Amino acid sequence: MSPAAQHHLDTLLERSARLARQAEDIMATLRVRELWGRLGHVVLVGSARYGLLNTPNIDFEIYVEQPNAAAGAAIMTEIAAAPGVTGLVHHDFLDTSDPGLYWRLDYLAQDGERWDFDIWLVPFSHPFAGMAEAFSQAMEQTLTPETRATILLLKAELAARAANSGTSRPRGIDICKAVLQGCVHNAEGFDAWLRLNPPPEMETWRPGCTG
What angle do CA 151, 153, 156 make, to 5 degrees? Predict the structure, then answer.
């Protein structure tokens, strides 16, 4: 690896570590686990869980017997009253094939970094209950320093390409799968792999599985 490439990687690793520390501070400041814990089983999922943050995003799932919009709204209203919260959006997906109540919360950190939370309140009976947590656990167990570096580099490369072209960034799970299952190392390889492995709408793969 050239000195310039090593510097780029070091920068990505440092940013990811900094975002992980900041994510923990923000979750504590907003008391997300504490407040949602009054209602159900709180699970941190996504890149903030397994240390692959390259954008300031935090994902939670909260499991209950039956999601209640009023109870969830009361908790989110309490969270949103904290200084730094700049936006709150709610959607009801209970009558869909992916049943749940969703909130997006936007937060401006003291250093000027803009964060967003994706929070799902879902029933224990959800057809994919526990899948995101199982994926997160598998990622924690599977990632090595080498694959972590490859995923962060590929995420950054694909994000830059999307920004330049005005297109959407690929899903994080598709990038992880391409690296961990397909041994992909760059955007060109990712495109080729994706053509042969078109992602399903609901991805059920996780490291250590063949599906």
Answer: 105
